[in-house]
Write a structure and sequence with these properties.
By secondary structure, this protein is α/β, with parallel strands linked by helices. It contains 9 helices and 7 strands, in the order ααβαβαβαβαβαβααβ. It has a single domain, classed as Vaccinia Virus protein VP39 (Rossmann fold, 3-Layer(aba) Sandwich).
Amino acid sequence: MAEGIDHGLTRRYLDRRVDGRMVALIDRELAGAGSVLDAGCGSGLYGPALRRRAASVTGIDHDPALCRQAAATGAYDRVVCAPVTRLAEHLDPVDVVFCSELVEHVPRAELRATLDALEAAATAKVVITVPNRLFPHAHMDPTHVLRYRLRGLLAELNRSRRFAYTLHPLGFAGHWRRRVWCRPLDAVARRVAVCSPTVLYLGRPREAEAGFGPGSRPGPGAGSDSGGRR
């Protein structure tokens, strides 16, 4: 992560609203999980949704103001204020690591160490979402320092010895999808990763198909190919 904390950006993250795509993703992929780590939990935006699906929820973030807000939601059993790369110093492994909109903030030189730390914390599944850099919103935050193509990031993730990853589209956010002109675009974006403004990388253990019920399977239309050609 970039050194220091931009307090202007902290205020922006405190003002963020829940993305229905992430709630649907949590409902689908984390149902029945015993323990979950919200890596890069920010203000705890998805803590309540995680709490509905998991028996135990822990959050970690490097920003103290965001950690305080996350703790105040009451959704987390514990919130750790530390860089994700120091996970092992603070936490025991969990069933699932949920990592939404974190990886794009990681400098290339720190990417492998960050991914290794996330995977070391998970026993059954790793759920990672990132913005698609083919869309303008991916470039509006100056802390989005990682440069990647969807297929290139998938290849980097699949260097892992522990987890095998697949790429899946998530479609447009709800406030866009409700617009008439966006509906046909969203129909494509929900099937083809390269056309989706935000995408999912779903990691499962290589040695076994670990899971905990129906939520361990991708949603309809999702697949390892999913049209992600970049």
